[in-house]
Amino acid sequence: MQTNLRYWEYYGMTETFTDLYERSKQGERFNRLYELITSRENILLAFRTIKSNKGSKTKGTDNRTIDDIKNMKDDEIVVKVNKLLQNYQPKKVKRVYIPKPNGDKRPLGIPSIMDRLIQQCFKQVLEPIADAKFYNHSYGFRPLRSTHHAIARIQYLINNSKLHYVVDIDIKGFFDNINHTLLLKQLWNIGIQDKQVLKIISKMLKAVIDGEGKPTKGTPQGGILSPLLSNIVLNDLDQWVAGQWENFETNYEYSRQSSKFQMLKRTNLKEGYIVRYADDFKIICRDWKTAKKWFHAVRLYLKDRLKLDISPEKSRIINLRKRKSEFLGFTIWAEPKGKKRVAQTGVVDKKIQEIKNKYKEHLKELKKSPTEQNVKKLNSFILGEHNYFKKATMVNKDFSRISYDLSKFTYNRLKPIGTYEKPKNPSKIYKKLYSNNFRTFKIAGIYLFPLADIQHEWNSYQFKQNLTPFTVEGRSKIHKELKPDILIEINKLMLSNIPYRTTEYMDNRISRYSMKNGLCEITGTFLFAEDVHCHHYKPVNLGGTDEFKNLRILHKDVHRLIHSTKEETIKRLIKLLKLTDEQIKTVDQYRKSCNLELIGLK
């Protein structure tokens, strides 16, 4: 997010997005958005964003990727987008199927690279308008929100509000069954009333799917705009449910929310709280009778108002005191503790089996080819699963069981190619992430991360609703308080394969990143994996080595600045990075070490 904010500022769009958000909060309608969407600054920001997105390497039906357009000049991109939009006809959408854990396949729709760029232009302008209208406890596909926030909200309702009944509703084929006419009305109702914009979105929705023809409903997963549109569809459900209880308007204004709820309990209203992540949602209730009312009310609302059906076999009411509910890969239940019940969370059985299957595939590949790269792939997989499920209260128990069930398989496969022992002088990154209490295999000079070595990390209850990039206050909090998960970024770095680099370089690169807590060594900003460059302070061609002490972790644009020789490029990067005089002096120290001309203070 820090990188995105810097791009916003560079292209002068920060104040624009803030203005859209605040005006939308105040209920304003927008009927002149097309000019903003097709503005030079917005198109170039979209182009910059698309270039840094890994999905841009995926081919559409025209077999083109970002590589085919990334060298176009700024003016060429702006003219190209505007020309396409004058009489917009999206290219065919490529149909791709990816496997689901239950054995089914999920259909994805991949637009052409130019159509993705156009969708990004629309998303940037529409998102702040829509986000201002979204319900507080909608957590999917929104800036700075995650699955962990959704789980934390449910834990809070169980622990603090003593709500132990869950209404589980599964929408049948949600993304494939979104009603186009209704969606356009919903866009209008939240304030997007530019008819030219709505007309183009309608064409996006009706883009021909290769091999299937023109769709009459649905929005294909894989499109950049689809997640935002799906949230707009289900925001009606969020607000309707919240309006029945949590946001119910009373004649009397209460000083405390709890006092209001106490009075509402004397009425015939249905007590219930919705928590949603994309199309997965739950309504948390106090008793069976209320839960049953909510179940039928929501089923009818989805059918009558949103033209969506539920899956009867997957939709149910669960008493969390007796059974477990599943949500986003976690199991949730209410367990006795003293005189009350507290929320407990674990890993769902399907996900446990999926972890086992993927682990075995990695092991088979490792046995065939016991290389350093395959060891790192397995370690990256283990770390990724640990990062996701560390918020579960029973994560240690579940992963200990997974490790035990796989122990014989692991030993039999790896004994011929590795050494089984407690780590002796493990790498810095291993020491940071894991203890020396577990025996593990050492293969190609690298210790495997132990599956069982994971502890529960406390899940903070409440998401701060003012933590948004669309306000001055929110951006201030992002810069000061937001602490990205460094383990997630380390996991991404471990997957990278840089040709012709030594093992020493690759290990020291991650160790240096970890030691610096992910911060750029010149600007001090947090670096996400995609922004990390590792610089040799003394270049290799001047006798520098891959030793830890000779490496520096830098933002990729800072690294480019150090090696740039063109004055135009240097000025552009200094403007983008907003470097202070002291930081420019530091850049010059690096350039001096590379025998390059100093920038100097101008």
From TrEMBL:
Q: What are the alphabetically sorted keywords of the record?
A: Nucleotidyltransferase, RNA-directed DNA polymerase, Transferase
Start and end residues of each Reverse transcriptase domain: 79-332
Q: Does the keyword Cytoplasm apply?
A: no
Leading EC class? transferase
Entry EC number(s) = 2.7.7.49
Q: Which Pfam families match?
A: RVT_1
Q: Which InterPro entries match?
A: DNA/RNA_pol_sf, Group_II_RT_mat, GrpII_Intron_Splice-Mob/Def, HNH_nuc, RT_dom
Its Gene Ontology molecular function terms?
RNA-directed DNA polymerase activity
Q: Which PANTHER family match?
A: NUCLEAR INTRON MATURASE 1, MITOCHONDRIAL-RELATED (PTHR34047), PROTEIN YKFC (PTHR34047:SF8)
Protein name per UniProt? Group II intron reverse transcriptase/maturase
Instruction: Tell me which species this is from.
Output: Heyndrickxia oleronia
Q: Which gene encodes it?
A: ltrA
